[in-house]
TrEMBL record:
Presence of keyword Nucleotide-binding: no
Annotated S-S bridges: 23-166, 91-184
Signal peptide per UniProt: 1-18
Species per Swiss-Prot/TrEMBL record: Muntiacus muntjak
Disordered: annotated segments: 177-202
Task performed by this protein: Functions as transport protein in the blood stream.
Location relative to the cell: Secreted
Domain named Lipocalin/cytosolic fatty-acid binding: residues: 41-180
Gene Ontology cellular component annotations, sorted alphabetically: extracellular space
UniProt superkingdom: Eukaryota
Pfam families named among the record's database cross-references: Lipocalin
Protein name per its UniProtKB record: Alpha-1-acid glycoprotein
Family the UniProt entry places it in: Belongs to the calycin superfamily. Lipocalin family.
List of residues that carry Pyrrolidone carboxylic acid: 19
Length: 202
């Protein structure tokens, strides 16, 4: 899930604090608690993203649709991720692990022998969350947006667009996913049936 993990070296927070008014209501989640992890458990849909970093911008534009499941491992400070990406009309399934740094509200993932960081921003009321990354300063800033349903409401979308504005990106530069292009449904169903059988067998 490369697009989740823009190469965040700098924290987004100092940049957000410097701006306004769109940034006013935006706070990163810190610390991440067991309750936060429980809140994140379950199925999520990737809605859209905006990345200044050209490499991430390009990979985001190649993605047609993504949904995934988070499974918390509280004691290990980890989330297991099962993600279903549709790229070039093909389904790509991956199982991976996200590390949680509870104190500073950061998540990370090892990919290509590097640890990629992102700050978690969430809205409990709206059932959405965002992962924010700033790589090499504002020049490479990026945010990706997730919701518990493939279609977002106007209110949810506004929240995302406020963040985009806050970091100085235009709405026209946002890349959205298209749920109608998803081809991972059958594989998800197959996995569900396999799990059911395993549960019955044990
Ligand atoms: C899927 O996982 C493999 C092995 O961990 C990795 O090499 C590959 O880049 C991953 N693909 C995606 C699309 O994340
Ligand atoms: C959060 O903490 C971890 C572990 O101490 C550190 O590696 C990471 O860089 C920190 N992230 C931020 C954004 O400060
Ligand atoms: C921030 O939150 C306050 C109170 O909920 C609301 O009145 C205000 O419109 C919000 N600001 C933005 C930029 O969304
Ligand atoms: C992503 O790339 C496209 C095409 O090059 C560009 O039009 C768009 O502005 C870029 N998005 C961001 C957020 O920089
Ligand atoms: C979080 O959950 C784990 C596993 O259930 C537990 O070991 C740990 O003590 C909990 N942490 C807090 C702060 O409650
Ligand atoms: C930022 O990126 C540019 C181009 O990739 C690089 O030349 C520069 O050293 C980077 N600066 C920092 C502070 O990492």
């Amino acid at each position: 899930m490369a697009l989740l993990w823009a190469l965040a070296v700098l924290s987004l927070l100092p940049l957000l604090e410097a701006q306004s008014p769109e940034c006013a209501n935006l706070t990163a989640v810190a610390p991440i608690t067991n309750a936060t992890l429980d809140w994140l458990a379950g199925k999520w849909f990737y809605i859209g993203s905006a990345f200044r970093n050209p490499e991430y911008n390009e990979s985001a534009r190649a993605i047609q649709a993504v949904f995934f499941y988070f499974e918390p491992r509280h004691a290990e400070d980890k989330l297991i991720v099962r993600d279903y990406q549709t790229i070039a009309d093909k389904c790509i399934y991956n199982l991976s692990t996200i590390n949680i740094y509870r104190q500073n509200g950061t998540m990370s993932k090892i990919e290509s022998d590097r640890e990629h960081f992102a700050d978690l921003l969430l809205n409990k009321h709206l059932r959405t969350f965002m992962l924010a990354a700033s790589w090499n300063g504002t020049k490479n800033m990026g945010v990706s947006f997730y919701a518990d349903k493939p279609e977002v409401t106007q209110e949810q979308k506004k929240e995302f667009l406020d963040v985009i504005k806050c970091i100085g990106i235009q709405e026209s530069e946002v890349t959205y996913s298209d749920e109608k292009k998803d081809v991972c449904g059958p594989l998800e169903k197959q996995h569900e049936e396999e799990r059911k059988k395993e549960t019955e067998a044990s």
